[in-house]
Every structure is written in C-alpha cells, then in structure tokens.
Amino acid sequence: MIDRLLRWLEIPINVMVWVGLVAGLLMMVHVTADVAGRTVFNHPLPGTTEIVSGWYMVAAAYLPWAWIARNDGHIVVDLFARLIPPAVMNVIELGIKLLTCAWVTLFAYQTYLRAVQTTRAGEVWEAAGSFILIWPSRWLLPLSAGMMGLYLVLRIVSDLGQMFGRRGATES
Asked: What's the number of domains the chain is made of?
C-alpha cells in the first residue's frame, strides 16, 4: 500500500518539477528580454526584478524539493559512505530522513502561517508605478515543503518495513 501511495505521489511531484523548470526557463527569457531591451532599445522591461524574485525564483527553487527527495538527490559524501557497513548506512539514512522530515514539516508550517498573513494583506510589490501581485507565490513554499514532507513520511514507513522484514507493509 505504501508503494502504491508513493507511485501516486509521483504525478504531483513530476508536475511540480516541470513547473519549476518552466519557471526557470521563463526567468531566463524574461531577464534576457530585459537586458536586450535595456542595451539595444534603451527601454528595459518594467518590473523584471520584482517578477523574477517574487515568482520565478520561488518556483524554480522550491517546487523541485519533493523530486529531489524522491530521487535521493541530496548532497552525499560518498567517500565516507563507502566505508560504512550497509546496515549502519541504512540506519543513518533513516535518521537523516527523519531529521529532514521534521525540519521540512516545521518549514511548511511556518511558511503556511506567513502565506495566510500575506494573503489576508493582499501582498503586492510596487514596480515601475504599478503593483505586482506577490501573495499567491507565497503558497508555493508550504506546498513544496508539505509535498516533500509527505513523501518522506511514506519513504520512512517503507524503509522501516524493509528494515524489519515486513514485506506486506510495503507491497500493494
């Protein structure tokens, strides 16, 4: 059952990583257009800095979190990891997942509270005499952290089932 839930989570995880990639691409195009407009036509695009930092960077930096966790893409010091026996390494990895899950859950909660505040306030940033709506992008942080936390909880349960030989706990 846990493996089935992990497979179902792959759909929103993949969507989130693709949205993050598209945001990164849009950021590059937007900044390139701004620089070209500024240098070639002597007319930069208004609000580029605010849109890039308030929307594109947030999406590109946070939406892939669950994908990174799914693919075990976090930083690993392989030189030392090779020296540790596999059973000990499994316990260390489980501890790391628990610690990461606790941190990500706290992060999701804190950013959720902030997103609620900015939504109620209708947060906008002023740029070139107009206003850019920012509060919706604040919801990307708790969404990303929540998805990563959910994925990690399911992975921890799956890993515990495998460590203690309960194959039925991880099979569908």
From this structure: 1
